């Protein structure tokens, strides 16, 4: 068995977390709250580091005064804590972040998620797989035509698309299950190799 | 028939104990089931094995500790391979927790003699997710003026001649989310992008591999095991594959027995009908 | 002004980001890069806001002695200790590393790994092939799981090929269609935000 205090701490927290499987209990709640607090603290530390490196240092040490604009916008996020009458000021930095994010999303999604994916679907129909892929994409897309008037051919295409979506989701389910098993294997590996030394590599 | 219908009433706690035992026993007493190499790992290995000593690769840590058991073995396997071949690794972090994760993975190599700033570096994390990625994919030094150890990135020898993605030989990201941010922001920058994905996200990334927007995929613990075999460095991922196999079989058995119990109950008539209408 | 100013900011900023990508306009590239940098700085402050909100909620629990307030004490204490050790001792300090490696990592991994238990329980009790389409979903899932497990080669050499084919042909087709549809949706939502039709992110409500 390990004699490392860190590993013992980790093992006890793991047991506390897994205890929920048998019933909700005080040990689980304590572990959950300690974890959430620590994770939130970690986020604050990272945020503080970012503000110092990207805001304070360029402003104070390098004299880049234009950095004052985003720093002030960042401080406006805390405006509601000063008084409810200042709550609306928080919208300014949020509007800025959302504007940048939406702009980046549109410009990249148009080319990478839309145009290139359509281009990749245009392939020579010289094999069964290629034919299945092209037909599959078209039928699944037709399933999503909710605002089109339903014609007999659209109904057939849409029905085929529904079947293909089921197969797609089945593949997703299979992969999700595999992933979850891997996550549990990771915890079992820690408990029985690093803590109890039952598993030897 | 009674036994079959009662199969559906087994207590959850018994199921959990069976699950733990089925996963634990092959880890304690390995079976040694052979592992074949899948097409995704072969493609990724082909790209990474074409790199030469002195080439620079960016490792982008985009996973949290929650998904680490499925993704981290990939990072470990690829890192071991690249460091063995003296390929330089520049670490950046898409996720906040990636900072500590990267430091943890890099520490053993530093202790073995790899020099920080020359053989590897950790530039850290900036908030903003895809917005941040869009920025640092194009200009690392501007987005990360200091690295996690407080060094000015402009002075790091490993970053000499490196501004952004086009200046490195490959960009390898590890994520417990989807591959799309990297496809959108790094893919267009003329650099091979390889994704180390959590198994859950693998189906969503398949279209990007086929279209060529991703140069390769390494999928979950299985992908890590395959990479370890290809690089002749079997480790923890290979050791976990027996448990993975039996876990899959157990899940399939549970689905089959659960359905058998359900259909037997349903075939029993009025009581079965009540079960269906519930 | 309280409603219009944020909408104008969103529209202008988004427009600069889009125009810079598609057109060669002098100054647009520099402006876009600076805006990305500014967004990173603002996002850094936003990281702290979420954590502070959490702390205030639990501080309220403690001051009002709501049920479970003892747990809120644990949360606040662990938040303060982690923050102090990270900021004043440094992220490479023993204390901060201890908290990350021995509290955050095992808890996060364990909470996420619990999904495996629930998955197995659900597989036993809820995954029913009640309709032909549900059966198709389950059969595909089973084939993919079986084919991707190393034991597949022992059972049958065709299983891995079947699993790979399912991933690379029908799954590819379905996921590609979903990706294209999602891209259309993302573009639509982004445009609605940029032109001010969708204002929920500002807490104003839709037009």
The neighbouring-strand order within the major sheet of chain B is 3-2-1-4-5-6
Q: Provide the residue-averaged pLDDT of chain A.
A: 91
Category from helices, strands and their pairing of chain B: alpha/beta
Low-confidence stretches of chain A: none
**Stretches with pLDDT under 50, minimum 5 residues of chain B:** 272-278
What order do the SSEs of chain A take from the amino end to the carboxyl end, as H and E?
HHHHHHH
Q: Total number of helical segments of chain A?
A: 7
Coarse shape of chain B: elongated
- On the 0 to 100 scale, the average pLDDT of chain B is 91
How is the main sheet of chain A built? none
Q: Radius of gyration of chain A in whole Å, from Cα?
A: 27 Å
| Range of helix content of chain A | over 70%
CATH structural class of the largest domain in chain B: Alpha Beta
Number of strands of chain B: 6
* Assembly annotation: heterotrimer
Feature tags:
heterotrimer, B: 278 residues, alpha/beta, Rossmann fold, six-stranded parallel β-sheet, 6 strands, elongated, C: 207 residues, mainly alpha, 8 helices
Can you walk through the features of this model?
The complex is a heterotrimer of chains A (201), B (278) and C (207). Helix content of chain A is 77%, strand content 0%. The model of chain A has no long low-confidence stretch (mean pLDDT 91). In chain A, helix 1 packs across helix 7 (152-195) and helix 6 (128-143) crosses helix 7 (152-195). Chain A has seven helices and no strands. Chain A has 201 residues and is mainly alpha-helical. Chain A has a domain at 124-201. Chain C is mainly alpha-helical. In chain C, helix 7 packs parallel to helix 8. At the A-C interface, helix 1, helix 2, helix 3, helix 5 and helix 6 of A face helix 1, helix 2, helix 3, helix 4 and helix 5 of C.
Write the layout of secondary structure elements.
The complex is a heterotrimer of chains A (201), B (278) and C (207).
Chain A: H1 5-18, H2 26-61, H3 68-76, H4 79-82, H5 91-121, H6 128-143, H7 152-195
Chain B: H1 2-6, H2 12-28, H3 39-49, E1 56-62, H4 68-84, E2 88-93, H5 98-111, E3 120-125, H6 130-138, H7 140-143, E4 170-175, H8 180-185, E5 193-197, H9 202-210, E6 216-219, H10 220-230, H11 236-266, H12 270-277
Parallel strand pairs in B: 1-2, 1-4, 2-3, 4-5, 5-6
Helix pairs in contact in B: 2-11, 3-10, 4-10, 10-11, 11-12
Chain C: H1 4-22, H2 28-63, H3 69-89, H4 94-125, H5 132-148, H6 152-155, H7 158-168, H8 170-194
Helix pairs in contact in C: 1-2, 2-3, 5-7, 7-8
